[in-house]
Q: What sequence folds into this?
């Protein structure tokens, strides 16, 4: 059997298609026709030598081999892009000021900073992990170059909507949830200090469902939020991104709690035209964020015309 050499262009179409949930949309993103992308995806499965797609309703989903392929494809593309940036951008210097929501500080920040520093060691980054309102204020006032933040629809002059993230009720992993909507007691809510988009969403959902609630614990940071929830002081609201091991997302309808809306995730830029270093950091961050979102939003995706689990 000859050595298999995967085509990076094919892998890019595959990864973009999975991130966008549609290979038709991927064709637009990578600048190819839908038929060309269809041929690329068929070539990928031929090279893999095993099915990487399966039927899922009217669309397609990844097989176990497909999930494995997706992980390796992302790593190969990241290494390729990192090598290209390192060779072509060795003279990048200066400062980049980056802001992140707390949800992304522990998991996303080390990955993004590590990739960027390896490719551009002469660029220094000032990172700030703070709440949403401060992130937006610092971008609009020019004190941050980039900021990754949740949004309730508010946009800055130069921003990019990355996608939607589901909100979820969060309970302790090791402690049983004693409260139930059928009980006479109000729901104990563990929450961040106001203003907080997720706290507002939680109370609106509870009020709409006619469920009484009380604030059982207020924290200025996520660390306090996790500690109080893990200790069983109450139920909190967050997204599945970045949850520590000591808490868990509650299943749909658990304890009689109402469903929650989704939350927009937005990358804010201070200026429309930014330095090459800032744009490169934005690219790396967008790649990392879209990968994280994909892990929590994997669903049957649309195929390009004529593509099916059998035809591939």
A:
């Amino acid at each position: 059997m000859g050595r298999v050499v995967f085509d990076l262009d094919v892998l890019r179409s595959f990864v973009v298609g999975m991130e966008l949930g549609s290979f038709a949309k991927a064709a637009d993103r990578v600048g190819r026709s839908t038929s060309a992308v269809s041929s690329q995806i068929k070539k990928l499965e031929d090279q893999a030598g095993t099915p990487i797609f399966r039927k899922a309703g009217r669309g397609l989903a990844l097989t176990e081999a497909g999930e494995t392929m997706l992980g390796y494809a992302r790593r190969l593309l990241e290494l390729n892009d990192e090598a290209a940036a390192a060779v072509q951008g060795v003279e990048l210097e200066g400062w980049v000021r980056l802001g992140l929501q707390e949800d992304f500080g522990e998991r996303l920040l080390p990955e993004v900073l590590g990739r960027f520093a390896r490719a551009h060691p002469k660029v220094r980054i000032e990172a700030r992990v703070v709440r949403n309102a401060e992130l937006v204020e610092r971008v609009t006032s020019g004190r941050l170059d980039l900021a990754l933040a949740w949004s309730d629809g508010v946009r800055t002059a130069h921003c990019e909507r990355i996608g939607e993230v589901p909100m979820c009720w969060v309970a302790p992993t090791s402690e049983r949830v004693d409260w139930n909507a059928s009980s006479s007691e109000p729901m104990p809510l563990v929450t961040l200090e106001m203003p907080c988009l997720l706290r507002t969403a939680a109370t609106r959902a509870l009020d709409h469902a006619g469920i009484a609630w009380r604030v059982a614990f207020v924290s200025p940071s996520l660390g306090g939020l996790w500690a109080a929830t893990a200790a069983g002081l109450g139920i909190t609201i967050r997204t599945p991104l970045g949850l520590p091991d000591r808490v868990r997302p509650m299943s749909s309808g658990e304890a009689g709690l109402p469903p929650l809306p989704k939350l927009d995730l937005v990358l804010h830029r201070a200026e429309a035209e930014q330095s090459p270093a800032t744009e490169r950091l934005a690219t790396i961050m967008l790649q990392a964020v879209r990968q994280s979102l994909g892990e929590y939003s994997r669903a049957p995706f649309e195929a390009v015309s004529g593509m099916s689990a059998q035809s591939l």
